[in-house]
Amino acid sequence: MSGVLLFLWLANIGFACAQINGYKDQPLSQIAIHKATFALRDSASIRARPSIIGTKGEDTDLVTVILNNSEPSVDDWIGVFTPANFNSSSCPPSEDQKGEQPFVCSSPVKFKYANYSNSDYTNTGKATLRFQLINQRSDFSFALFSGGFSNPKVLSISNFISFANPKAPVYPRLAQGKSWDEMTVTWTSGYNIEEAVPFIEWGLKGESRTRSPAGTLTFERSSMCGAPARTVGWRDPGFIHTSFLKDLWPNSVYVYRMGHRLVSGSYVWSKFYSFKSSPYPGQDSLQRVIVFGDMGKAERDGSNDYSDYQPGSLNTTDQLIKDLKNYDIVFHIGDISYADGYISQWDQFTSQVEAISSTKPYMIASGNHERDWPNSGSYYDGQDSGGECGVLAETMYYVPAENRAKFWYSTDYGMFRFCIADSEHDWREGSEQYKFIEKCLASVDRRKQPWLIFAAHRVLGYSSDFWYAQTDYEEPMGRESLEKLWQKYKVDIAFFGHTHNYERSCPIYQKQCTSIEKSHYSGTVNGTIHILY
Ligand SMILES: [Fe+2]
Hints:
It is a single chain. The chain has 533 residues and is α/β, with parallel strands linked by helices. 13% of the residues lie in helices and 30% in strands. Strands 12, 13, 14, 15, 16, 17, 18 and 19 form an eight-stranded antiparallel β-sheet that branches. The chain has a seven-stranded mixed β-sheet with strand order 23-24-25-26-29-27-28, covered by helices on one side. Strands 2-10-9-6-7 form a five-stranded mixed β-sheet, with no helix packed on it. Mean pLDDT is 91; it is low at 7-23. Fe (ii) ion binds at residues 18-19, 294, 334-335, 367-369, 457, 498. It is an enzyme of class 3 (hydrolase). Residues 1-18 form the signal peptide. Its EC number is 3.1.3.2.
């Protein structure tokens, strides 16, 4: 097994008990936006500049917002809305004819307190704030609210701001295809297929380039399973394209860019990106793997930070970007963006990790925050997905699964075979998923691929944490039968997320350590090492 190095990463340590607090921790959910009323007054004003951003093709840019308010208050806040027109004209048809239509039906994509950068605001009523916007296929406006988050009143709405090309192709994410020599590129744009043909232009670095077509997906509000995804959290997801780059040479550097050929015959291009193709299965070369879970997102301009939600995600993202030369493939095993039904936040997440996912395969697994919703087919009936019920994760990211709604797949990387399971669907003995897991574990040639790795989101019982290890709340579900499989097929390591605390077990089988070694293992260890995040 020379030349194989396994890197581990720990994300979001400081945010324990996510499964307890659930979706209510999403910062945007603290705002009772459906109760917002209009109280526009001339003595309050909000202006934003410049009016056009991203003029050099950038997909993120800074905007300055200037406030004047003759009756300032400590709980005044600014919401960023996109599309810019967020009044009741954007409300969906009401199912309840007798009910009163709200004035505002869409959540802001982010917010800041008015006194965020000027503590004197409550005396002077004047403040200047900076917001970082990302290209989200539509224009933006800023609204000044009084009444805090529970009783919001719109005092003033800014001029509208727009990216130079709001529909531009953005946020590429790579993933391994169904075979080792295929790389997939998924990205987001505002171009539907009637308007433009999406494709990837690509080739070996320094050689001629070819073009491969892309498939396009999108979905409607009605695909969401409940609130907030179906109500105030809904936002048009744009168009999500995936192209399949096939017959790659192993361990070779490729360059690529996203393109859209408009009906007029002209082209819209992204900038160029590059990646290194995967090694041949069994190929003995340096192969470095990052595994983590539960990262989430945060705003670099300090927006939404009152709840101290996931500032650690920026540290992890930045470290991963700094270390790009030191690893080859990433597995983010569930609880991806924590959008929790606020659809806009998936754009923010894909933007945050772009520098990683555009150049390394970014493989995901499904977690409770992607999938769980009552009566939607998830094994658990919690509401942690905020009504997304898996639709966002399954559409925004490609995984080489037979059926992306059943989030289990195998993928080979040189000397590794990964069997990625879906803890949010039944995996007990006899289930469809169980059969897949056995097939994945049984079908690898261990002389060529000595490392056999299992990964899933929820912990399967071995943890020093009482909550995960001792109660029936989590996953003793299926443990005995899955453990039997791991033992039979000699799984080296099983990775899990969900706990937000790092733990590593000894090689273990039926609650017994199978080796007295503490840190170095070699040969057959007769048990599986469990690693938790
Ligand atoms: Fe989780």
